[in-house]
UniProtKB/TrEMBL annotation:
Recorded GO MF terms: metal ion binding; phosphoglycolate phosphatase activity
Species name: Thalassotalea litorea
Cellular-component GO terms for this entry: cytosol
InterPro entries associated with the record: HAD-like_hydrolase_sf, HAD-like_sf, HAD-SF_hydro_IA, HAD_2, HAD_sf, PGP-like_dom2
One Pfam family this sequence matches: HAD_2
PANTHER family membership: PHOSPHOGLYCOLATE PHOSPHATASE (PTHR43434)
Keywords (A to Z) from UniProt: Carbohydrate metabolism, Hydrolase, Magnesium, Metal-binding
Presence of keyword Hydrolase: yes
Domain of life: Bacteria
Name of protein: HAD family hydrolase
Annotated GO biological process: DNA repair
């Protein structure tokens, strides 16, 4: 694998660092019980696990929802999520090893996610290694979310790394790669994440496609 000569690494969260599909599945089905609707399977959740709450609601409620109903259901989903600490989420295999190696080699790293802060912090409470991130940019940190490049620029400034193609951004969704490219960052696809089997990730234009987290060590150290 060709080594990337850079100064820092940024990650997406859901589907890249942490497998959160199990908790999203549990929360969504708890919400469906309240509305006497049939449960959805974990297999249905996984391909859209990185896409936020609204796609989960579209999947679960099937019929077109008004903007008002979507906002109400989103608020109810978040309330259930906050009442239930993450029990089913787990770090993807190899992630803890990679982050520990970055810390050991003084490679600054951080997280840029579209997940709201109040849903992100419980994961930090569960996994101590996430607390060693040099920056955390959530979906509500700024007025913009990925694929807009503003969160990426904000994270770059927090890492105190000059402008230029010297940061690697790793994510499992096209919007991650788009945001990284728009921010003039090097990009890598986390192919272990929530990517539907029918999606051709070759078309995303990323610099690298990584099949396992530990491939990052070959690329960066």
């Amino acid at each position: 694998m060709r080594q990337w000569q850079g100064k820092g690494v940024l990650f997406d969260l859901d589907g890249t660092l942490v497998d959160t599909a199990g908790d999203l599945h549990a929360v969504l089905n708890q919400l469906l019980v309240q509305y006497q609707r049939p449960a959805v399977s974990l297999e249905q959740i996984i391909p859209i696990g990185s896409d936020g709450i609204y796609p989960l609601l579209d999947l679960a409620f099937e019929a077109p929802l008004s903007a008002e109903n979507k906002q109400r259901l989103r608020a109810e989903f978040i309330a259930i999520y906050q009442q239930n600490p993450p029990r089913h989420s787990r770090l993807f295999s190899g992630i803890e090893e990679v982050l520990a190696a970055f810390n050991e080699h003084h490679i600054p790293w951080g997280i840029v996610t579209n997940k709201p802060t109040k849903l992100t912090l419980p994961l930090f409470a569960k996994y101590q290694v996430l607390k060693t991130a040099k920056t955390l940019v959530c979906g509500d940190t700024l007025g913009f979310k990925k694929p807009h490049p503003a969160p990426m620029h904000h994270a770059r400034a927090a890492l105190n790394i000059d402008q230029g193609n010297n940061i690697l951004y790793v994510g499992d969704a096209k919007r991650d790669i788009d945001a990284g490219i728009r921010a003039d960052m090097h990009t890598a696809i986390a192919a272990w994440g929530y990517i539907h089997a029918t999606v051709n990730i070759q078309d995303w234009g990323a610099g690298h496609i990584l099949r396992a987290p530990t491939e990052l060590l070959q690329l960066t150290i």
